[in-house]
Amino acid sequence: MLDENEIEETPIVTNWFNNKTPDEFKQAQLDDPIISQILTWKKSPEKPKWPEISHLSQHHKTYWSQWERLTVVEGILYRKWENTTTNDINLQYVLPCADRNRVLLLLHNDQLGGHLGFKRTIARIRHRFYWAGYNTSFVERWCKRCTECQKRNQPSHHTRGQMKSYIVGEPMERVSLDILGPVTRTYKGNKYVIVVTDYFTRYAEAYGVPDIEAQTVADKLLEEFICRYGLPVQIHTDQGSQFTSDLFIQMCKKLNIDKTRNSPFHPQSSGLVERLNRTIEDMISKFVPKHQKDWDQYLPYLMMAYRSSVHETLGETPCFMMMGREVRLPEGPKVKFKVVHVNRLKPFQGNMKRWYQPVGEPAQNTRFQVRNKLDREQTDHD
Ligand SMILES: [Zn+2]
């Protein structure tokens, strides 16, 4: 099936989708032996009887069993999929076999893909594509065999601190500020990464900076984060000197931000931040070797990938949590998707309500599970 070298050597073309015309999407399906068969079936009003298809492949049968969900729009085969986040019915383009590698390269390996794990990669595919068996072997194997991911996912043997759970009730109530690096200096002179994360929504921004002087950190935080998202009630940092400096403390005071920090005796108290930064750090370190001198150019794309992917603990994307809507990503096919709104009149307000409601409880439950998991891991390593 997939050859590792093939994955690495295939050129990555970000605008692949946008360069395709509806006719090409149609033709690609007609060139696929299974999909063209389904298209032929869908032309007739009757679903084929079982005896007519029983001798065919498992994939034929998978499509056949979803007869009602398959629909042909302007000659192109789609599957209806209800997005439980937005309650919209989306149309997934039924992806021909020949295009799967390319889609995986875009949604997993490319700078917009960010080498996210199996679950998140699947979630990104689901918003756009479908093919029989997509959620089982193919994608999982792709992620498992991805050399970048393998390199990064070696088990770490250092013990992790126990996670302390902070209950926060709304976006921007508590924001964490952290510094990664030093990493390879880029052409632009950046050597560190400042990561700002909102506890409630897990919305995160990362900025490449040349140094971590208090002035640099304060400027970035103010100009790039606070000016866009507003003032946080509380900022949590570690013990770094730039955070304990007079300048930083004065800035927080001036802006009326409550500043907390890790106690030197309990540096692990920001468990959430460490975990989150590990995800971001993972993503960054997979790219730095490939983009030694210009990783900062890719950083915004990585962060976009992170924010637009379903967060394991929340079951929502950080984007949705922060803004109440999903962002449109650049890799959607140019084909006009006909989105059928289940409730066209549903006001955005209602959406917001749903947006806030479910988060409290399930999030706390999962937080509890995460904590248990961390406790277990700790015991395992001890
Ligand atoms: Zn990967």
TrEMBL record:
The cross-references to Pfam families, in alphabetical order and at most eight, read: Integrase_H2C2 (PF17921), rve (PF00665)
Question: Domain of life here?
Answer: Eukaryota
Which biological process terms from the Gene Ontology are attached to this UniProt entry? DNA integration
Select a single GO molecular function from the record's annotations and give it. Answer: nucleic acid binding
Looking up InterPro entries in the UniProt record yields: Integrase_cat-core, Integrase_H2C2, Retrovirus_Pol_polyprotein, RNaseH-like_sf, RNaseH_sf
Domain (Integrase catalytic): give its ranges.
167-326
The molecule here is called Integrase catalytic domain-containing protein
